[in-house]
Amino acid sequence: MTTYRPAEAPEADPRVKAVFDDIRAVRGTDFINNMWRWLAVDPALLERTWAEVRDVVGKPSSIDPLTKEMIYIAVSVANNCAYCIHSHTAAARAKGMSEEQYGELLAIIGLAGKTNQLATALQVPVDDAFDLSKSR
């Protein structure tokens, strides 16, 4: 259930239209997903968020696009964001994620969650070898 109903014509605001046009151009599609439509409640928030997404995950970098999407899936699972799990799983599949890779990703997410919880519950101290401030 949503806590907000977006405007009927969000692109009536020129700032929103400019962001939506950029999303369409960058992604090569006319589809504007709900995340952007809901963020359009605040044009400044929409602009900032799109600029950051475009700069962090949209630009070529040393991390390939599929890996970026898989990281996004893992963080979305950890944060329990159903919307982002769905949208980034679809994006990862569009970028070539196989069913085998998806299965491995889910196994890693599950294992990381388990071992994180165990380390937290046991209050395991960080090894000196892993603490860069002590390993000189």
Which descriptors apply to this entry?
136 residues; AhpD-like
Give me a quick take on this structure.
The chain has 136 residues and is mainly α. The chain contains 6 helices and no strands.
Architecture overview:
The protein has 136 residues and is mostly helical. The chain folds into 2 domains: 10-59, AhpD-like (Up-down Bundle); 62-125, AhpD-like. The chain contains 6 helices and no strands. The chain is elongated, with a radius of gyration of 19 Å.
Might you state the CATH topology name of the largest domain?
AhpD-like
> What is the succession of H and E elements?
HHHHHH
Q: List unreliable stretches of 5+ residues.
A: none
**CATH architecture verdict of the largest domain:** Up-down Bundle
Distance between the termini: 53 Å
CATH class of the largest domain: Mainly Alpha
Kindly give the count of domains. 2
Oligomer: single chain
Look at the structure and name the CATH superfamily of the largest domain: AhpD-like
